[in-house]
């Protein structure tokens, strides 16, 4: 565990310093691993729907590390939220997540069930397939840095 934590800290120290300097107000975790860790730490189950607020605290995640480390992967799959296919990686995910939160000074993150895949799908639905062709064209020319495809900021519904 000590070596894993050291390795994660080493890999993330530069980006963590930048994030601390920028001082984000909101942090969102979008991976399935974070969803499962959030559930393990007491977040509402998925059956409550996508609009239920789910958060994961650094302190709760720290407690989950000890809980996960004490069990073999097969037994982790019996814990709330931890699926059998992801049970083996749940401990590493918890260590990485906790370390990121500590290094960046985040006390909590909001768990979001939507991630990159859903964003790509929504962009495709809104703009059709032409936007992806533009990304491919830029990639082929290796000029993506000179001609970035603009990102969209989602408008608040509230």
- Structural class call reads mainly alpha
Radius of gyration: 18 Å
Order of helices and strands: HEHEHHHEHH
Beta-strand content? 5-15%
Could you say how many structural domains there are in total? 2
CATH class of the largest domain equals Alpha Beta
According to CATH, the fold-level topology of the largest domain is Nucleotidyltransferase, domain 5
Distance between the termini: 43 Å
Write down the overall geometry. Answer: globular
Descriptive notes:
The protein is mainly alpha-helical and 158 residues long. It has two domains: 2-113, 2-Layer Sandwich (Nucleotidyltransferase, domain 5); 116-158, no CATH class. The protein is built from seven helices and three strands, in the order αβαβαααβαα. Helix 3 packs antiparallel against helix 5 (87-104). The radius of gyration is 18 Å and the shape is globular. The protein starts with a helix and ends in a 17-residue tail after the last helix. The model is unreliable at 153-158 (pLDDT under 50). Pfam families: Ppx-GppA. InterPro entries: ATPase_NBD, GppA/Ppx_hydrolase, Ppx_GppA_N.
């Amino acid at each position: 565990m000590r070596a894993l934590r050291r390795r994660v800290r080493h890999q993330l120290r530069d980006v963590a310093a930048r994030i601390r300097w920028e001082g984000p107000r909101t942090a969102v975790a979008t991976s399935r691993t974070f969803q499962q860790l959030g559930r393990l730490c007491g977040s509402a189950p998925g059956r409550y729907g996508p609009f239920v607020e789910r958060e994961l605290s650094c302190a709760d995640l720290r407690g989950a590390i000890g809980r996960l480390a004490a069990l073999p992967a097969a037994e982790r799959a019996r814990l709330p939220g931890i699926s059998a296919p992801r049970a083996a990686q749940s401990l590493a995910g918890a260590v990485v997540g906790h370390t990121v939160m500590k290094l960046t000074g985040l006390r909590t993150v909001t768990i979001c069930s939507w991630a990159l895949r859903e964003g790509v799908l929504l962009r495709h639905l809104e703009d059709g397939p032409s936007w992806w062709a533009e990304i491919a064209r830029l990639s082929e020319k290796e000029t993506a840095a000179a001609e970035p495809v603009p990102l969209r900021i989602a408008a608040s519904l509230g």
